[in-house]
Amino acid sequence: MITMLRAALAATAVALGGMLASPATYAQAGSAADEIEKYRQALQDGNPAELWEARGEDLWKKPGGPKNASLERCDLGRGPGVVKGAYAELPKFFADAGRVMDLETRLVWCRVNLQGMTEADARRSPFGSPERKSDNEALTAWITSESKGVAMAVSLDHPKMREAYDVGRAIFFFRGGPHDFACSTCHSEDGKRIRLQDLPNLTVKSGAQRGYTTWPAYRVSQGELRTFQWRLNDCFRQQRFPEIEFGSPASIALTTFLAYNANGAPFAAPAIKR
After folding, report:
1. pLDDT tens digits along 40-75
2. 113-150 confidence digits (pLDDT tens)
């Protein structure tokens, strides 16, 4: 019994030691995070996302679907076929569709209306895997790359955009699920991290700019390029929320809230992340 008690006390001491770490320990953690950021920057010159970009450009220009048409007449908000800088102004209200859209839902709309695909086919498999590549991720990679260096400029002038922003803000702060989590649980304070992964404070402009403008991104741990719709889906999964539907009004609203908060920052994706 005494031996067991001593072992329990020793384990408690170790646990408390971890909780009461010295300032030097935290400094080391900060230094490690800095080194990880340097590692990311070093990888940018050889970002594998370029492979997705090349495939996406080919998909944009190649005839396809029942109408055997390309996407070169797709209007992303700056006129039919204009890709340069378009992503920096999305999400946006599109009069022809009668609703607010982000890039990925607009691509679905164009594939249906220009190429003749069914809605179900255009939405199928938006996220790829090493065994099955996603056309959506490739198209998104190329189109977003055409806005690199362009300042984010999402407008709330249309009433539907203001409505989407307000709904997105409510979703961001809504708490629920088995852990009583919200987006704001991880992303509303400075200095938070999961292990050595920094969590940007998306409630302040600098954090929103840094967080939003680096998606889509090539995930080294997955060997895949991931879009912002994927990022939202995975965040909901980690919160143990019901899976957010691809292209749903909720996903568009949350994207609108975050994209508008990033206004003024030069777009910097596709990036590379762990």
Report:
1. 566 666 799 999 999 999 999 999 999 999 999 999
2. 999 999 999 999 999 887 889 999 999 999 999 999 99
- Give the residue from 153, 139, 157, 155 showing the smallest Cα distance to 83: 139
The closest of 245, 265, 9 to 147, measured between CA atoms, is 265
Residue keyed to tokens 């001491």? 13
The sign of the dihedral angle between the CA atoms of 222, 227, 148, 145 is positive
Q: Are 252 and 169 in contact (CB under 8 A)?
A: no
Q: What is the DSSP string of 7-34?
A: HHHHHHHHHHHHHT--HHHHHHHHHHHH
- What CATH number is given for 49-273 in this structure? 1.10.760.10
Neighbours of 132 (CB within 10 A): 8
The helix/strand/coil state of 218 is: strand
Q: For the packed helices 135-145 and 49-61, what is the interaxial angle rounded to 10 degrees?
A: 100
Active site residues: 235
CA angle (110 as vertex; 108, 112 as ends), nearest 5: 70
Other C-beta atoms within 10 Å of 105: how many? 25
Residues in a beta bridge with 219: 224, 273
Q: Is the dihedral of CA 241, 213, 201, 100 positive or negative?
A: negative
Could you give the CA distance from residue 202 to residue 206 in angstroms, rounded to a whole number? 8
Look up tokens 């209306």; give the residue. 113
